Amino acid sequence: MHHDPYQPARPRRSRRLIWISAVAALAVLLGGGGFAAWKLDWFSGNGEAVSFGKGSTPSPAADRQTPGQSPSGKPSPSGDPDVLMPTGPKADFKQTTKLDDGTIIAKTRLVGAKSGFEGDVWVWAPKEYEDPKYAKSGFPVLIALPGGNGFPANYWSDRSLGLQKAVSEGVQAGTSLPFVLVMPVLNPDAKYYYDGADIPGQPKMGTWIAEDVPDFAKANFRTYKSRDGWAFMGSSSGAFVGMKTVLQHPDRFKAVIASGGEIVPDSPLWKGHQAEMDANNPEKLAQKLIDTKGPEVFINFQIGTKESGKERMTNFVQTYGKGPVKTTIRDIQNGEHNGWHYVRGMKEGSLEWISKVLKGPKPDAA
pTM to 2 decimals? Predict the structure, then answer.
């Protein structure tokens, strides 16, 4: 059974909402004028249209990668043939949060061309993405998956967890690449866990995560054609889906930060579909990768010392952490099963780890 590592956040959020309500009530008593003048910064601009990479130019038609087609391999404006300029069409983004450094978290509605599933996706680009010296460079994409129901929201898009801040601070410290974060819903509803898979008779969440969401990122951001610029991070059920997807598609994704101890598929919807469930089992996928000798994938497990699940991770590493399956386990001291502690683990070393196995943007030589 997957747990929701964001559960402990609710009291804190409630207190914030109560405080905001109290301020609003006071403003009404004072006539409202003071409150209108004193805008809370994190609400400023929410709901307004957002455009990422204003200096980006779409790929020429000959160099565009459309769903179902291979990259052309033609050089990008930067001279790196691996760089893929935004292919379009551009999504309709609306701001949901403004961070202290001025960067924006925005949301759009994506209709998956390959899965047929329609769901919300949140995105965030670091400050470097708008820097003119990187206007011709690709950026690595980190697809961040939540635990729990993963519907109707993705809790990594909540500024209180600090994922975006951790990346920004890591970039400044030289310990993290400036990742573009893509944060899709994980499930089509809050009733079941769909294991990020195409379970027969159910919405094709495996195709949504592995194909539609990356295609969407390529349409809207400067990315890379090769797997060297693509990775996952996730907690609990999201960690399972991220790890499973990397092992299923090692030609498209290279690494994952998997927090919280989920290793095998456990959706009740698999009943009667054993063969399909086996095809989505990280243990069997890892063994297949070992047997076929690659390509290499990198799995960084994170586990809090105050939560269960370490034994499952250790068993996986001992059994399958060999050959092309590169594994490591990070213990988060006094860590519990929640997003704040997993972000702390990322700041303590997991972001640096994943940044070493992926490629980052290169400034324009000019």
Answer: 0.86
Task: Give DSSP secondary structure letters for 73-91.
Answer: ----TTS-TTEE---SPPP
φ, ψ at 325 (rounded to 5°): -95, 100
Question: For residues 22 and 71, is the Cβ–Cβ distance under 8 A?
Answer: no
Q: Is the peptide bond before 250 cis (omega within 30 degrees of 0)?
A: no
Mutual orientation of helices 282-291 and 237-248 as an angle, nearest 10°?
20
**Spatial distance between the Cα atoms of 159 and 323, rounded to a whole number of angstroms:** 38
Report whether the peptide linkage leading into residue 86 is cis, meaning its omega lies within 30 degrees of zero: no
Long-range contacts of 284-293 (CB under 8 A, 24+ apart): 285/244, 285/247, 285/248, 286/247, 286/316, 286/320, 286/325, 287/320, 289/247, 289/250, 289/323, 289/324, 289/325, 290/320, 290/322, 290/323, 290/324, 290/325, 293/323, 293/324
Query: Would you say 335 and 347 are in contact if contact means Cβ atoms under 8 Å apart?
Result: no
Q: Which residue(s) pair with 234 in the sheet? A: 145, 258
Tens-digit pLDDT profile for residues 293-316: 999 999 999 999 999 999 999 999
Q: Rounded to whole angstroms, how far apart are CA atoms 125 and 86?
A: 14
pLDDT digits (tens, 9 = 90+) for 223-240: 999 999 999 999 999 999
